[in-house]
Amino acid sequence: MSTGFDLKSAAESMGEAVAEMNQTDKINFEAKQAGTDTRDDSTDSAVDEIASPPLRHGRAHAKDGRPKKPKAESKLATVVRQWLDNVLPTLPDPSPWAVGSVSLMDRNTETLVAQAPKRWVVYEPMVLLPTGSFSTRAEISVSRTETSSARLLTSPAPLGWPDLLAAVSREQQDQLWRGILLALSPKGASGVRHAQLTHLAVNEGIPPQNVQGGDNENILRSPTGLRPLYGDFGPAATLAGGPPTDADFERAFWVSTKQNGLYQTWAPRWSMFSRGNIKEKARLLAWSRTACEETTGAWAVDLYAGIGYFVFSYAQRGLRVLGWELNPWSAEALRRGAVRNGWSVRVVRRDVDLARPTAEAVFSGRYFDEGNSAKTVDKDKHDKPPVIVIFVEDNQHAARRLSGELQAFTASLPAALSAETFGPVVHVNCGLLPTSRPTWQIAWAAIVGGADRETSTAPRTGWMHLHDNVGVEELASRQAEIQALVTAWAGEVAETRQCICTAVVEHVEQVKTFAPGVWHCVFDVRITI
């Protein structure tokens, strides 16, 4: 039985995902050559960090017994050390940098370098540092030998980056930030570095609750913990204090990266990016095509579209895509990324446009005259409908739009046109963590809906990709639970329509660790009807 997943293609695509690097990836690759990659993809955050080389101490030994040369400091550590050498002597005395008559400058330098970030990631033109960078506070014990006796006098001295940054001027701080950006910028053809990286920030993660909303859940996944250090990241509030407008989008700071040959764009102040999804994107790109997918008009649906993580994988394979996304900033990021990748795209976000019949937003490019009001939601200059359509609304509306309006619209068309409109849905992605369970039945209906209208007697296959957080010891039981659920749904369809309908959980993909002992899993459900 085919699983729908081509292992050979997957291996090739995964190899490309690792080997393919844009200028940003080359910078990170250079860093990793000097040390091990300690990337941690265990949690979703504003971004996931890539390791830069840790500072190595001590003398390791080769097999022949000769001591190995210590590995070079990272570019960031070198900049920090040089900055400290220039700044520490300028601090007033007495200060935390001296105890009595004994200078602690050397000890302070080593301690502060050790507390500096060991990792970073580049998303042009931004460098993002991991959580806690340049905010560490520590206390050390400083020993000195008194000349009158051999005993040691120990004096505690508060030491940490917050103390130091509070003691220096803003210009001195900016010198450090500019130095880091310059050191991490790529070299030009002449071998000279130019300040191509212009923004520096610390990733403080995605808070589970809205900061200003008390205990209400942060369902938009807004990275409100982002801590800008250098550069203009755009306004922290919209012009009207409500949903963003086109003017707000233009005022925002946008960054981009390239994965699996596809660009993704987002505004780091307003929406998240999870680098750890790269393997799952590659897996979907390598998915073997079914007979239904080869037919004209096959579709994919993403019920949690985000900035286009999986939407772009489907579009790259030649599918048309419908998506739902609550965060208008993520939807705009998806639009910008789609345009950069060369796809036509339409984002339906204004109330007046969301209230229109779904077919107007999805098919207005072909099936309505120029004078039709649906053109107000069509920003494209193409005659054809867009490849990607995103609705900025709760995905619970997807059931009405997919199983109701679009299927009814297609059924009303002549047979010659019906195959070119809302054809079979061959993939539905439910990519929310910790669980996407509230949308599973919507996904099921999108796959099986409309099957009774088809004239072909050949079976049709579609896939649901159900994301869930699962404990390591619960993988088998969760798979059995989902299997029982979809088996029951298939039985209901078979009885109602007097047809054969089967559903099998054919694969469980462990994408990445979400927390100790917990995996972000994707359950691939194969539906045949």
TrEMBL record:
GO terms for biological process: methylation. GO terms for molecular function: methyltransferase activity; tRNA 4-demethylwyosine alpha-amino-alpha-carboxypropyltransferase activity. SUPFAM superfamilies: S-adenosyl-L-methionine-dependent methyltransferases (SSF53335). Its EC number is 2.5.1.114. Residues 191-529 form the SAM-dependent methyltransferase TRM5/TYW2-type domain. Keywords: Methyltransferase, Transferase. Residues 61-74 have a biased composition (Basic and acidic residues). It catalyses: 4-demethylwyosine(37) in tRNA(Phe) + S-adenosyl-L-methionine = 4-demethyl-7-[(3S)-3-amino-3-carboxypropyl]wyosine(37) in tRNA(Phe) + S-methyl-5'-thioadenosine + H(+). It is an enzyme of class 2 (transferase). Residues 31-74 are annotated as: Disordered. This is tRNA(Phe) (4-demethylwyosine(37)-C(7)) aminocarboxypropyltransferase. It comes from Sporothrix epigloea. The lineage of its organism: Eukaryota, Fungi, Dikarya, Ascomycota, Pezizomycotina.
